[in-house]
Amino acid sequence: MLKRELVNQVSEQLGDYYKQDIAQAVEIILEEISQALAEERRVEIRGFGSFSVRTRKPRTTKNPKTGKMMNIPARKTLHFTMSKSLKEVLIDEVE
Q1: Measured between alpha carbons, how far is 31 from 93 in angstroms, rounded to an integer?
Q2: In what side-by-side order are the strands of the sheet with 43-45?
Q3: What is the pLDDT of residue 72?
Q4: 35-69 pLDDT, tens per residue?
């Protein structure tokens, strides 16, 4: 789903608000989530899941094409854990 599709879905459900206002609200929410993650704070959205930043350790690996050893530095990655209710919805769809 694209951001504009999200705005369209929300505007259809709310009806009384302008799409421009809903788009601005979605943008503010996404900016706040991004800012919290940039500060390495955990973001939890009840009924959906939680986002957190994890640091991957540096490692050494071999380039399969050249055979040369490469050092990969430590880096930060985004980790998402889905909520129990979202997991149940996804499992029900499979069955």
Answers
A1: 31
A2: 43-45, 49-56, 75-82
A3: 94
A4: 999 999 999 999 999 999 999 999 999 999 999 99
| Total length of the chain | 95
Closest by CA to 82, choosing from 50, 35, 37, is: 50
In sequence order, what DSSP letters do the residues of 32-89 get, joined into one string? HHHHHHHTT--EEETTTEEEEEEEEPPEEEE-TTT--EEEE--EEEEEEEE-HHHHHH
The overall pTM is greater than 0.90:
no
Q: Alpha-carbon torsion 70, 76, 77, 80, what sign?
A: positive
Cβ atoms of 87 and 70 closer than 8 Å: no
Report the SS3 class of residue 18. coil
